[in-house]
Amino acid sequence: MKKFAVSLLCRTTVVSAFLLGGCAVEVENTKAAEELARLAQPPGSVYTGWRVFQDRCATCHGAPATGTVAAPDLLPIVRNLGPRRFVGLVLMRYDWSLPVGQAGADIAARDALIEGVMQRKEGALTMPAWQGEPRVNAHIMDLYAYLSARADGLQGPGRPAP
Fold it and tell me: Are 119 and 47 in contact (CB under 8 A)?
């Protein structure tokens, strides 16, 4: 009986060690995946970006950032922008009616747009440059984090968790 108890104890110990060893590998794999996911996310707070967006951008672009009659759906636009391009467009660009690749690159097209606005042939340029707005300027990467999460489907249209 004593031999049987010792044998059972040894088997239990070996099985437990094997199971715990498997869990350790899984934890390491999970940690690596979490690290990769963290590195892939843009710097900034999705929640803070949502708050700034609701305060400064939602009036024109709509609360879910999917556009209104006054301003375009930002999700397909942001999906194709990196953080550097996003910052430049939001802080300094007025010519939102030009295609993203053409704005700033095609001076003649931009000049024609400006001329059209000046002669009242085109609508007013309503997208302001936000470089002078302290709240937008201070939280530009938070705005990018929120909009890129929306564009990538990682954040729904509602309020994100703080």
Answer: no
